[in-house]
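Researcher: Go.
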Amino acid sequence: MSLNKVMLIGNLGQDPSIKYLENNRVVAHFSMATHEQFTDRNGERKVETEWHQIEAWDQLAKSLDQLKMKGILKKGTQVFVEGKIRSEIYKDKNGVELPRKKIKAIQIQLLGTAKSGEEKSQDHEATPENGG
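Model: Structure:
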């Protein structure tokens, strides 16, 4: 038995990019930052940021596009993402093949707004099943 499941809470690093492809396929991409706060050996408060590349497909991507068009989903918005880790190889500007990890989202739920991280909203949830 094996399990490939990721759950993240963080903030969008950019507005989502939504592309409508052939055969009615839709894909959404955005970066997401998670932060970890800790005290180092010297007693100094530190924050480490980890960046994640998120990808959503079809009905989930359409739901994200609707939220983006309403101005609800944008850079800085706090979200919960549940998904799977995917490995891929991509070519950089010089044609060098490099590995990277991507999160294929299964569910995305908005937790706050980009204006104020303090505002909480459970009203906006996007899943492939409900369409947002």
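Model: The domain at 6-126 is CATH 2.40.50.140 (OB fold (Dihydrolipoamide Acetyltransferase, E2P)).
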